[in-house]
Amino acid sequence: MIRAEQRGPILRLTLQNPPANALSLALMEFLQSELDAVRSDETIRVIVIAADGKLFSAGHDLKQMTSHRGDADHGKAYFEDVFAVCSRLMQSIVDHPKPVIAEVDGLAAAAGCQLVASCDLAFASERSRFAVNGLDIGLFCTTPAVALTRIVNRKQAMEMLLTGDAIDAVTAKEIGLLNRVVPTESLTSVVTECASLIATKSALAVKLGKAAVQKQSAMGLAEAYQHASRTMVENMLSHDAAEGIAAFLDKRKPTEPSNDRPGETRDIPD
Question: Which of 39, 40, 207, 258 has the CA that lies 20 to 30 A from 95?
Fold first, then answer.
């Protein structure tokens, strides 16, 4: 259901739930457990979320959810569980100490689009498309809207939410959902190159910075600057900053222990 591969400092998590890579309850729980397991793993610097097949993810598993309409409560408890697990997963990506990159090749719809919007960076192939099309089946994509409206302009997000129309990758980049659009055959290498570059930076500085960016975005201007200043002081007092600045002034490369190790692959069973 999920293939996890570590290559040096990069952890690659690949969705494998054909044909639509639906975000079933089990898949979301597996993805959550993988993210939780590496929060304090110093050998991992960057996480990439990708998918096998022609779709990145079509969203929640509607067949699975519909099967619970026969429950005594008409599925209410199960629906609550699904959306609670999904909400925690998306928040854990945003709050994760490691940068998380979405690698999209194909359609990302509804909760699949929400997953892309929740990642720190997103790269997509030219053939990729993005939609929040719940209204096509009588269901407004309210939870995907939380991630989407925090990434793109509200009016552009509302157009996607109200029409359900899919947008192409170029449009997705123009509205801020993506960082880059690249040829399909180059997608993985471009993502790996970016992840590898990030992995060379100070892990502590990246962790502090990502957390600060997320926290200050919900603050007023004065409070945001106060919080950012405290974070800068904490960062300045660290070994990484002391060594990095000294190396810059001495016109030399900073010394840092290597975290590389041979690649490992593990499969998570269904």
Answer: 258
